[in-house]
Design goal:
The structure is a homodimer. By secondary structure, the first copy, chain A, is mainly alpha-helical. Chain A has 13 helices and 2 strands. The N terminus of chain A is likely disordered.
């Protein structure tokens, strides 16, 4: 019966000019990237907040040296990452975890590898004050810098009177980040019957389901948004937040969306290639030794998950006319 | 006779609704920013070269660490500068001269404070190989990085077959830089009779001519594009290039275009405010002690020279799918 239906589907596809490939069976749960982006009730994604948030995202005044902005490590010219193992921070210090992409982060259940920030609004407050990253001395330091740079009217427009606060700084950045969605990956077009993917990618699509990868890398986001033990390396993961021994080496499951563009891989950036990452994950998480042709098929599939970058007009940042801001450290 | 004409002009302005201010006398030589940008015969500003050059301008692969791009120090979100005294470079080294703005640099006679690069094409080759700045090991290093990142087709489109060379890298960046022009400053609109500037700015406009500032900061560019001794600080200036004692402390005259947005000032970034810069220049170059109200008027005029930033869409840089580039230094 199944083969009769398939023949009919293939025949119809041929007749209507739809690619025959779109008739391939898409494993349970997989689907196109959602088009509706969640937003919290207390921070609607208004255009004023997005525009302000974009400025703040590119704002080096949020770092002690005046050198780093959010975009330094989560570079929107390179898929929301810096392609570094560990990012360069204040005075050339290195962080201890690989900078994850900001793209589609609006869809994640929690932020950071260990999920210590529930929302984008919480995450955005971290790096400016982290002494290894942007190294500002305090929230007050951020506010005085933004005030001096001339941000007050922009905050007041986006949040109302007297609203230049650190909380609202993070809110505006989060609002901007909710626009950083990458639709129309080849896989998404394939799912919608608008385009084809290669035979290797189709085999890979089936294999990730058969092997069990998609029990964690589940659904249209290719992450269950859950926390799972990844017993690899010395990073304590969630345990470093909760202190619980059960949380040892537990990390949030990363999405496969745009994964081909965000090398190197893992929380420690230790896997330089997607092939290596796939091989290691199958071995450590699924006790499976993949053959080279399986790896190649899976990588071919993962490459179909690269979406379209949002078009971003570089903001012009507010600056006081005629005098320097005090950053020389 | 003059006063009769002025009365008539003012009357006409009133009747026709044109601001009376536009009738103020504009000192000899001053004018609106040119709209025609010079380009060398061997590097036409084609759209393919501009698009490629924009990518290269934002390309951190052109630095040893993978962290710095042209845009790090000549940040197009902040008027083509980084607002630092001396920019941060490889491994947190500091340069020895203030990073000048890239805006309108296409109009300068020569590039760098000491003019050691005749063209933008020459200038663009400097920072990637400067050990204090982007610190690449060699031109070959640049080429292999760009090749690995996936630039070959873009060069071939812009320059023809087998054209991924260091020379063409610089040419493309220069072509992009020739689009970084800032027209329609309040002063330009005023000159064209399209808008007004304040009474203080008009006084300042007259004073810079009367005092003699505009003998060097001449013409619509507000630079003679000439080299002049500025006996201030320990920097040898042009002498460090030519070795000639006559060139001691000689620097290219900087333009006043967008000067209000490019603090701090001078080759050594030692003047934090425009007021201080004006005061020092008048004293050192013209042996004139300016009064505070003169300084205020001149600064008011200089602030009318801030033009409109070109709208820049952030490029998406070519990257190999599924593997990291080798930069961890």
């Amino acid at each position: 019966m199944k083969s009769i239906i398939m023949s009919w589907v293939l025949g119809m596809a041929f007749i209507t000019g739809i690619s025959a490939a779109s008739a391939a069976t898409i494993p349970d749960g997989m689907g196109a990237l959602p088009t509706v982006v969640p937003e919290p009730a207390n921070n609607p994604t208004t255009s004023d907040r997005v525009e302000l948030g974009k400025k703040l995202y590119f704002e080096p005044a949020l770092s002690r040296s005046g050198h780093f902005s959010c975009n330094s490590c989560h570079n929107l010219a390179t898929w929301g990452v810096d392609n570094q193992k560990f990012s360069i921070g204040h005075r050339w210090q290195r962080g201890g975890r690989n900078a994850p992409t900001v793209l589609n982060a609006a869809f994640w259940s929690r932020q950071f590898w260990d999920g210590r920030a529930p929302m984008l609004e919480d995450q955005a407050k971290g790096p400016p004050l982290n002494p290894v990253e942007m190294a500002l001395g305090s929230e007050a330091d951020a506010i005085s810098r933004l005030t001096e740079a001339g941000y007050e009217p922009l905050f007041n427009k986006a949040f109302g009177k007297n609203s230049l606060t650190f909380d609202n700084t993070a809110k505006a950045i989060a609002a901007f980040e909710r626009t950083l969605i990458t639709p129309n990956a080849p896989f998404d077009r394939f799912v919608r019957g608008e385009g084809d993917i290669s035979a290797a990618a189709k085999r890979g699509m089936q294999k990730v389901a058969d092997i069990g990868c998609t029990s964690c890398h589940a659904g249209p986001l290719f992450t269950s948004n859950d926390f799972v033990k990844f017993d690899y390396g010395k990073d304590h993961g969630l345990k470093s937040v909760t202190g619980k021994s059960d949380d040892e080496h537990v990390f949030r499951v990363q999405s496969w969306r745009n994964v081909a563009m965000t090398a190197p891989y893992f929380h420690d950036g230790s896997a330089a290639t997607l092939e290596e990452a796939v091989k290691t994950m199958a071995r450590v998480q699924l006790d499976t030794r993949l053959k080279n042709n399986d790896i190649a098929d899976i990588v071919a599939f993962l490459k179909t998950l690269t979406g379209e970058m949002p078009q971003i007009t570089l903001p012009v940042l507010p600056r006081p006319a005629g005098h320097a801001l005090p950053w020389q450290e």
